[in-house]
Amino acid sequence: MRHLTMTSVLACFAILGFSTMGQAGLEHGHNPANTISTDVDHPDSFRHFAPELPAMKERVPPVNTEFGLHVSEIEPGLFFITDFIYQSAFLVTGEGIVVFDAPPSFGERHRSVIEMSAPGVPITHFILSHKHADHNGGGHAFADIDGLTVIGAQTIADSLTANPLRGVLTPTDTFDESLSLTVGGVPIDLQTANFHANDTDVMIFLPDQKFLMAIDTITPGEAPFMNFGATANLDGYMENFETFLAYDFEHFLSGHVAVLGNRDDVETARDYAFDVHDTVYSLWPSFLDRFGANMELTGFENGNLAYRMTIEEVRDDCADQIIDRWQDRLSVVDLWADSHCETVVLHAIMH
Question: pLDDT tens digits, residue range 279-291?
Fold first, then answer.
């Protein structure tokens, strides 16, 4: 076997891109073509993936409005809304209503649900968790409210000024790192963080209601969405679990799926994420040896191919272990575990 220096390995790192899956772990739903087939008889059929766990299905709330949404008062004056893919909340106070995020999938139904739940109460405040349009592109439904106070971190406001996003409201009031305000006698604490967005995330905490909102973090009852919620900052994602758990909360709104989370969900998501991290790093000492073997296998003629093969081997070894340990504890582990493992593999390469 030829001698491979770290310099030559890093030279390969610099020019590679990775997207598809390897052969390992097909019995768990891994797909070597990175395409799930709709053909029920295909070896890569969607039918090979495990269904949602019964415990998860039991937590899904019912549609209970004529608008096709679920709405429930989780604490006096604090309402939770979901269309079973996205989530939002609003707070009814003596001064008016505070809206927390507006997914575009809600559309005009958002205003209708608020009016149904608190008829005649004016909407006075709108708070952005972050700028992403999939969680706040429905802000246009509130744009016609005279005097609406839109609150966001200064970095979010700056980003939206430079690059407006369709439907996302630009803040009228901003803050740098933290803001404590009271609306109608109800305290609201805002704190910036960096666990998902490429600029700023905002944690929203209502101490009286023991309610914490941190969007695009966990998916209660499920493994996280691919690449740990498509985070732009894996270090921040991992570090912020302890930040979340330092709050005294009972309700955790994470922005996705139908289920409103709780403290146990955050702890479980933390344990899952660190298990993926630790599993990749337990495999890491073998990386260069695997790469060397794949270079030899490919005749030292295609370093990109050998390197991708190595990434897929480590990723799939990790995913097999994670699926075995977590498939009975969280739903959709077999669907997303390989993406989580690959995220940590690429992070390990670069850090």
Answer: 999 999 999 999 9
Summarised one tens digit per residue, pLDDT across range 327-336 is 999 999 999 9
> What is the b/e burial string over 305-335, where b = at least 16 CB atoms within 10 angstroms of the residue's CB?
ebbbbbbbbbbbbbbbbbbeebbeebbbbbb
CA 328 to CA 336: how far, in whole Å?
14
Domain ranges of the chain: 6-49+275-350, 59-261
What is the mean predicted confidence (pLDDT) over 41-51?
90
Cα–Cα dist 310/324, whole Å = 22
CATH of domain 59-261: 3.60.15.10
Cα–Cα distance measured from residue 292 to residue 4, given in angstroms and rounded to the nearest whole number = 7
Strands of the sheet containing 70-75, edge to edge, are 70-75, 78-82, 87-92, 97-100, 123-127, 149-153, 173-175
CA distance 252 to 45: 34
For the question of whether the overall pTM of this predicted structure is more than 0.85, the answer is yes
Query: N- to C-terminal Cα distance for the chain?
Result: 27
